[in-house]
Design goal:
The complex is a heterodimer of chains A (about 700) and B (about 170). Chain A has about 700 residues and is of the alpha+beta class. Among the domains of chain A are: about 1-190, no CATH class; about 445-545 and about 650-670; about 545-645. Chain A is built from 21 helices and 12 strands. In chain A, strand 1 (about 150-155) and strand 2 form a beta hairpin. In chain A, helix 10 runs antiparallel to helix 20 and helix 19 (about 520-545) runs antiparallel to helix 20. The termini of chain A are far apart. Chain B has 3 domains: about 1-30; about 35-100, Cytochrome C biogenesis protein (Helicase, Ruva Protein, domain 3), CATH 1.10.8.640; about 105-135. With about 170 residues, chain B is mostly helical. In chain B, helix 2 (about 35-45) packs across helix 3. The chains are: A alpha+beta (about 700), B mainly alpha (about 170). Chains A and B meet through helix 10, helix 11, helix 14, helix 15 and helix 17 of A and helix 2, helix 5 and helix 6 of B.
Chain lengths: ~700, ~170
Amino acid sequence: MLAEIGLTALFLTFVAAIYAIIAAVYGGRNHADQWVKSARNASLLTFPLLLTAAGVLWIALLSGQYQISYVWAVSSPSTPTFYRLTALWGSQEGSILFWSLLMSLFSAAALLLNWRSHRRLMPYVIAYMMATLAFFVGLSLFLENPFERYWLLPGNEVAQTALIPAGAIAPEPERLAATAQGLNPLLRHFGMIIHPPMLYLGFVGFVIPFAFAMAALASGDLSTNWIKATRRWTLVAWLFLSLGLLLGGRWAYDVLGWGGYWGWDPVENAAFLPWLIGTAFLHSVMIQEKRGMLKTWNMFLVIGTFSAVIFGTFATRSGLIDSVHSFARSQIGFPMFFFWAIVTVISVGLILWRWNRGELKDDHQFANILSRESLFVLNNLIFVVLFVAIFWGSFGAPIVSELFFDTNITLGTDYFMRVTPPLFLALYILMGIAPLSAWGATSLRRLGKSLLIPLALTAILLVILLIDGMRGVGALVGYGIVSLAGFVALYEIYRGAAARHSSLNENWFRAITALFGRNKRRYGGYIVHLGITIIGIGVIGSTLFQQETQQTLAKGESLSIGGYEMRYDDFTPAIADDGRTMQIADVTVMRGGQEIANLRPRIDVYPSNPMTIAGSYSTLENDFYVLLVGWEELSHATATFKVYINPLINLVWWGGLILILGTFIAAWPMELLPISVREQVRNDRRVGAKA
Amino acid sequence: MRTLTVRRGMMYHAPAIMAILLVLVFAFPVAAQTVTDDDVNAIAKKMYCPVCENIPLDVCPTQACADWRGEIRQQLESGSTEQQIIDGFVARYGERVIGTPQDPFLRALSLLTPWLIGGIGALAVLIMLARWRRSGDLRPAPAVSGVRILSDDDYRLRLETDLKERR
């Protein structure tokens, strides 16, 4: 019965989405408001319908309905309740349903919040949002149905279908429960509870700006309306995507046993690509808002972001490139590729059509290379080159090599570490200079004057690092450039607060909070820059100064690395409640002769594959990170350990939190403008209305 | 007498024994050199086993990867260089086992393409900026949606003025 309810809800969602597309396009083209309203209602209906479908699957997971093949594949009687809930996105069919649910949630919110203010765009916004939703719901319904069940056919054959085949009976529940597979071991981690939802929220969030941009192109309303409507949506999507990437990094660090947080894995990169283009858009959209420039370029960036989202989803789920995320592979590659290609071709075609008609002409042109808009264009260029470099390394080169040279290649960390660092450093340089430049034009002298204090602070920092013994040119250059960007952000905040402190006699706390309250976007942006700076310091430290060693120790023996000592104390094999066997080593970490931590690195062995769980002792200075690599069977007299010292790695997580905080500030809906500006806006509107 | 014979025998055999010892002295450091796990991992780090999808060989926990690491150790112990070991694996399993292609053409294609595309992009931006400058349009930005654009400095000045008034 549960499966029937879910199936019906899914089918009705598909029908509602298709109806909404037809009604919206018809209503939009014929100015038939009733049809547009009907399309809106059908769109809104998709959310409760998908919530029902997802709710049914959750109930099936929680109550162990193993006749449903998805439940059988991702849970077992020993799966804890907690992981039964997260199993909704633990495999292909469930994750596509979850993707659709979040998509319908975003669509409903976008419709409710923008219905009155952007009525002209709405028919086409509905059409594009529902077209995307219908595609994913269609995948669920026809190719990756999460409500398929196992049936015993006459002749004792087993079938897996959504509808009951003739003469079929349900298999015995006990037999199904006994053979149920359980959740992929890699997904049994706290990070996996929120990492995929955050990533999906980021992905589906970018559908909204895309739908508004396409609506602007389709309707011919090419003013800044679509940008005003979507700027905050873009920030929200970017926030979730950033959070998803950070949590993914943390999950990899804890569970995958690489000793790091970013392995340049193609699926990691697939999630990073929309982030890069989305970040470029967040910057360049300011130029269109402030100066009425880069209209065509912004359209390309929005479409590029959405296209990267769909491509990333396609690459992740089609098995296009082999990866650790291969749990999500299936036969949906071709339909997804087709959808991605169609969407991209139509979007680009629409842009070129409008551009050819002269409707995307800029209101103003660049005057000076040192203007903020020119520096933002350079920033965009670097983001796009980074995108190209990472896309090429992850997908382009392996595909080209296989297609044209009949050779399978892998571009690993070595490639990415050669190509990306100069580009990232160039971005940090611009992050330091651009905030100090002005719209229109900036003189070199004025820019130099503004940079004086941040440069002096950077020089002091470098001298301290030199005195401390740092000699690596790469590290010094890296730290210098990254910290300059951070000092500029701090200095700008200080200047704003100091102005209030001196002119209004406000205390520093009041001055800073009031400053942020009055211009959330600007100062939220500085906090984001600060977060990126701290991440950069963490990345440089943990990449250039990482130490590692692998040694075999007898019980009681120690190894030394990076000022630490580690002693192998004991070994404990164990069996967990969920059936996995655990091989646990007990080690003691010492520093300066003092015991500072007892760690238990272990290997969990599941029937399908082993998992290496690190033991870690964290300080702000570094992480002592130990992996159990091997051991002497039976006696456990010796064990082999791989130990990493990861300097400043925790700054990556702390910087991430600061980045999230800054994005929250920038995206917060209440913008308090100065009184005179508000009055001026009101007056301008009145004049406009009278005219 | 017998002792003398032995001594004489030793004298006769001494050059041969010395030669054998010399050969052993020079030959053994290669054959018996100590290979640490770190030596193995330094090479394994650059490689990928075709089974374990994008996990570097030095950290992959599967038996297949452990066997490959064992093979690297054996080859190091027998005196092979890093490049010889990598070339051997590439010859047997293809370019996919290494993080950067060994084939000179594929290597150049992989490493240069992004810079080539980046260079073309940079050139396009430079031409675009130069054209814009030549057009000499230095008018102030027109109003967007009826709101005059304020520069950040204007904004800050007004902010302070407003706040003073509010007090």
